[in-house]
Write a structure and sequence with these properties.
Helices cover 34% and strands 26% of the residues. By secondary structure, the protein is α+β, with helices and mostly antiparallel strands. The strands form 2 sheets. Strands 1, 2, 5, 6, 7, 8 and 9 form a 7-stranded mixed beta sheet that branches. The chain has a two-stranded antiparallel ribbon with strand order 3-4.
Length: 212
């Protein structure tokens, strides 16, 4: 059973590999800001959970009908997206060091919520047949004694610039996080438990995805 990952996130890829799945990575090439702006222009502001499911769906649907190495997609397409919410404000990737630093000063010593959206499309035999999505959330608490020097050193590595909320739990940012309540894989950007449930909805047993 082939799984096509419509994401270039190293964390999502590593999570799937650790779970025994070797996906086929496909760049969705979705303009995330444009997708969200278009939805809000039509319907007004949307919640953080709606944002991540919207973008997960957009990424998966952008891959529908493509040919990979000359062959039609035969399997399941997975799109994923994550966002961090603090004080009701949704934060994606900071991109710039000064933005990342501002966020770390704001979230130091506090608790926020990391939302991860998933969208799965049954694209077996080269045809998009059905789809389903879900969102998972985990609460993340940050140490209150993180120094400005530690924040600056972390930002200088470049790691927080490319991830939702400007932090990771599976790499250099892990020591600054004191607790996680909820699915820890949701913080990485891909809930394996949620993905298993989506596959069960398609009557696909999880072990059939293993590449062992």
């Amino acid at each position: 059973m082939h799984l096509y990952l419509a994401s270039t996130s190293p964390a999502r890829l590593a999570t799937l590999r650790a779970a025994g799945i070797e996906p086929i990575v496909v760049h969705s090439e979705v303009d995330e800001e444009a997708v969200v702006a278009a939805r809000e222009a039509a319907h007004g502001p949307i919640s953080a959970t709606s944002v991540v499911e919207l973008l997960a769906r957009a990424k998966a649907e952008a891959v529908v009908g493509r040919r990979i190495d000359g062959a039609a997609i035969d399997g399941y397409i997975l799109g994923g997206d994550s966002a961090f919410e603090l004080d009701g404000i949704t934060y994606g990737k900071p991109h710039l060091p000064e933005v990342a630093r501002e966020r770390w000063l704001l979230q130091r010593g506090r608790t926020g919520h990391l939302h991860s959206g998933h969208w799965l499309i049954d694209h077996t035999a080269g045809v998009a047949r059905r789809a389903a999505g879900s969102t998972t959330t985990a609460s993340v608490s940050f140490a209150d004694n993180i120094s400005d020097a530690e924040i600056d050193a972390y930002i200088a590595t470049g790691e927080p610039l490319k991830v939702a909320g400007a932090f990771t739990i599976d790499s250099l940012g892990a020591p600054f996080i004191t607790s996680i309540v909820g699915d820890p894989h949701a913080v990485v950007g891909l809930s394996l438990a949620a993905l298993r449930e989506l596959f069960l909805g398609f009557a696909v047993p999880w072990p059939s995805l293993w590449n062992l």
